[in-house]
Structures are given as structure tokens and as C-alpha cells.
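Support request, please re-run this one:
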Amino acid sequence: MKTREYYIELLSKHVSNPKMIAHCIASEAVLKALARKFGEDEDIWGIAGLLHDIDVEITNGDSKKHALVGAEMLTNELPPEAVDAIRMHNEFATGQQRTTRFQHALAAGETITGLIFATAMVYPDKKIESVKVKSITKRMKEKMFAASVNRETIMECEKIGIPINEFAEISLAALLPIAAELGF
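Re-run finished. Output below.
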């Protein structure tokens, strides 16, 4: 694998929206934390988190193409298990269900970042450091709050043996050190 700087540059070539880049960097942090928990390769899991949406602007977010194009773009860039997790983070495009720990971790990990960002935005200071685990789990139950955030995907954390409270705690802890970089 190449350096993180190389992959940041690769992402920046294909994604120009600063909020989408922040989402990708947040996903990288969450995936690295999950890799640590499971004794997996933090670099591989982190880069999969970073690059999972590399094709979002190319495909205009078309749910029938998104992730398939990205996986194809990354076939010669990343190990096969990372490409597979990226491809499978959008089950709709593949017509298959996620089955591996890496697939579930990427899907759940990248999705919870949206819920955490939305939760931070309701606080007066709009800072991730103000967000509490209890707030995240409470917002999970409020279907109208951040309605585009797929709660079922976040709950895939349980398929890999992490209860939602712990998953929210791991994810929030992963984002705190990079909150300023994310704009929160």
C-alpha cells in the first residue's frame, strides 16, 4: 500500500465537496478504531474508510452505480478485501448482502458519522466535543432526525459483536481528535 498522503490526493482528485471529504476522513478514523478493536490492519481498514465514497461525484450518487465504480477504480490500488468492503458498503448496487466483518464495519462506521455530525449540529456550539454517547443513541430512535441516515445500517454493528452504545462510544472517540479538521 502507498502512503495516506497518496490516498488523500487520490480522493481529492475525484471528490471536491469539502463536506464529503470530511465524511471520508471521519469514516477513516472510525474504521481505524474498529480495526484496533478487532486486531485488524488499521491502515487497510482506515484507507477503505477514506476512499469508500471516491466515486460519489463521478456517479452523482446514483445508488445503482455508487461503490461499483469506486471499487473498479481502486482494484489496483488496495488489497482485495478493502475493495470488496468498499463495493459492499452499497448493497443496493451489488444486489448482495454484506457478510464479512469488514463489510459490516465499513457500512456501519461510515453511516454513524452522519448521525454524529447531525447531532453535533443541534448543539449551540456545533462541536463534536459536546456530543455525548447518550445523545447519539437517543437520536438513533428519532426517525425524523437526520432522516437520511440509515439506522439499520448503523445497527449492523451488532452483527460484528458491538452493541450500539459501545459502537457510538468507539465512533465518537475516534472523531474527537480530528474534530477541528472535520470542521466541528
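The domain at 4-182 is CATH 1.10.3210 (Hypothetical protein af1432). The chain has eleven helices and no strands.
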